[in-house]
Amino acid sequence: MLAETICSAVSAAGLGIAALTAYRKRFLAATRIAAYSLVPVGLVMTGVVAWATGIVFKPTVWAGFAVLGLAWLLFTTTRAIERRGQGAGEGEGPGKQKKPKAAKGRPAREAVAPAASAPSLGDGARPRPTPAAAPAEDFSDIEAILKKHGI
Question: What's the rounded mean pLDDT across residues 95-109?
Answer without folding.
Answer: 58
